[in-house]
Structures are given as C-alpha cells and as structure tokens.
C-alpha cells in the first residue's frame, strides 16, 4: 500500500476528507486563496437522499461571501423569506428574515455536486475517489518517516 508521502508528495498543501457541503466549500475557498488542495471522497456520484435541505439566511450570506451562491441555482431551490414555528401548546409564530436576506430550500445532491464542480474548476484543487480505509498515521522520529495503514 502507498504511503501518504508517496501519494501527495510535494504537490498538496491540504488534504480534505469528504466532499460534502463543508469539504467542497472549504476546498474551493482554500484553492481560491492559492492552497494546493486534494479532496478525498469515497463516492463522487451525486448523493441521492430522500430529503430536502434548508439553508437559513446566514448560510446564504456566507455562500455569497465565498463566491458559491450560484451553486444553489439549478438545485430546485426555493427562496424563503419567512417561516413559521409551532410551539408545544399549538401557538404559531411567524419568523421573518430582514428585508435584504432570504433562506433557500434545495435538493441536497444537486447542491453538493455543484459545490464539487465549482471546487474542481480551480487549477489548485484535485478530487479523487479513494476508500477511506487508507487511513494513515505518519510519524516523524528523528527525521525517519514511517507509515501505518488501517
């Protein structure tokens, strides 16, 4: 089995395990800032979950700050300006965002694929499908490197 030093030698500053929402967004942000990023994901096909996701206004604002807001386009996203909460006693409360903000409901798999594609579009970002069993522990004992694999 290959050692991490052999796989990523000299061409990677950061290794990210997992190309979900957080891993893909982090990969994009770091590569955009000039880091050489390698993302490892066990399955790079579009996730197919029977679940809708929701991103509150603060999350949408952060996506825009990272330059990733366009990743919600084409993910069957719906803009949400307010929502309701139902209390234990059955009482309802309407909760509105500020007039300049909105949340988005979206299809998780399509959104994640768009994030992955955007990260992969940067020249300093590389994604690879690898089993996560490749877990590596690198020790440096008096400048002698050794690898251990799970």
Automatic annotation (TrEMBL):
<protein>
    <recommendedName>
        <fullName>Squalene monooxygenase</fullName>
        <ecNumber>1.14.14.17</ecNumber>
    </recommendedName>
</protein>
<dbReference type="Pfam" id="PF01266">
    <property type="entry name" value="DAO"/>
</dbReference>
<comment type="function">
    <text>Catalyzes the stereospecific oxidation of squalene to (S)-2,3-epoxysqualene, and is considered to be a rate-limiting enzyme in steroid biosynthesis.</text>
</comment>
<dbReference type="GO" id="GO:0050660">
    <property type="term" value="F:flavin adenine dinucleotide binding"/>
</dbReference>
<feature type="domain" description="FAD dependent oxidoreductase">
    <location>
        <begin position="13"/>
        <end position="43"/>
    </location>
</feature>
<dbReference type="GO" id="GO:0005783">
    <property type="term" value="C:endoplasmic reticulum"/>
</dbReference>
<keyword id="KW-0285">Flavoprotein</keyword>
<dbReference type="GO" id="GO:0016020">
    <property type="term" value="C:membrane"/>
</dbReference>
<dbReference type="InterPro" id="IPR006076">
    <property type="entry name" value="FAD-dep_OxRdtase"/>
</dbReference>
<keyword id="KW-0274">FAD</keyword>
<keyword id="KW-0560">Oxidoreductase</keyword>
<dbReference type="GO" id="GO:0016126">
    <property type="term" value="P:sterol biosynthetic process"/>
</dbReference>
<comment type="similarity">
    <text>Belongs to the squalene monooxygenase family.</text>
</comment>
<dbReference type="GO" id="GO:0004506">
    <property type="term" value="F:squalene monooxygenase activity"/>
</dbReference>
<dbReference type="InterPro" id="IPR036188">
    <property type="entry name" value="FAD/NAD-bd_sf"/>
</dbReference>
<dbReference type="InterPro" id="IPR040125">
    <property type="entry name" value="Squalene_monox"/>
</dbReference>
